[in-house]
Amino acid sequence: MDLREREGANQRHPWEIARARFVLEMLADAGALQESPRILDVGAGDAFVARLLAEKVDGGRVVAWDAHFSDHDLASLAGVGLVPVREQPQGPFDAVLLLDVLEHVEDDDGFLRGIVAGGAPEATFLVTVPAWPQLFSAHDVALRHFRRYTPETCRDLLVRAGLDVKRSGGLFHWPLLLRGPVVLGERLLRRRRREDDPSANSVPTGIGGWRHGRLVTNATAAALAVDQLVSKLAARAGVDLPGLSFWALCRKAA
């Protein structure tokens, strides 16, 4: 969870749980969780994924890096196998996660090159980004995103930074079908509000605002689990199936 969305959150959004499950499964399939790995989670947020990883890598070390960690975060998150830091840590790292991070960085090209340099030879990199610039909305503005990516622009960025893309594809396919009409409606409503009251502005709550009961939460989680299975099968078949997010599993080029 982005630290900006943490305030007031009282339960995990199914999207966040589904993404974490996907990340762990992809890293395990790539062999990145074996032999006491050194893992870096860039822009770790509230360290939800980093904590899950620390439980998985027996004898390994997970460094959760987020420039917005408070002193309280640094003290409360530190534990067996988990090291929270505010400053960029020194490598090398065997696996590096950039989960919805690059869209927050104005110079994503230069930033990514610096991160790749800290990876060990042939290190595993797992990257996720919000997809499709056409869907850029108030949600992106509220989270201080500079952009959304097409699969092509993200792959080009990764290759320029010195990564070899092994597998990639869309993630969250059925949410993409829902998001388009929502963004269109938001734009029409915002235009109408500006005409009626130029000062009117609404701020989306984000994933920290999930307030649904167990039945809705479990049903959403089950639907996202099926969605993830589709993502994996499509990637293995070489089918570039569009999703609300784009992911890429990479190796640091020799």
Fold topology:
Elements (H helix, E strand, L loop, with lengths): L13 H16 L8 E5 L5 H9 L4 E5 L5 H7 L4 E4 L7 E7 L8 H10 L1 E12 L7 H5 L8 H10 L2 E9 L1 H24 L17 H23 L8 E8 L2
Parallel strand pairs: 1-2, 1-4, 2-3, 4-5
Antiparallel strand pairs: 5-7, 6-7
Helix pairs in contact: 1-8
Notes on the structure:
- The chain is of the alpha/beta class.
- It has a single domain (3-252), classed as Vaccinia Virus protein VP39 (Rossmann fold, 3-Layer(aba) Sandwich).
- The protein contains eight helices and seven strands.
- It has helices at residues 14-29, 48-56, 71-77, 108-117, 138-142, 151-160, 173-196, 214-236, and strands at residues 38-42, 61-65, 82-85, 93-99, 119-130, 163-171, 245-252.
- A seven-stranded mixed beta sheet has the order 3-2-1-4-5-7-6, sandwiched between helices.
- Helix 3 links the parallel strand 2 and strand 3 (82-85).
What is this entry, summarized?
The protein is α/β, with parallel strands linked by helices.
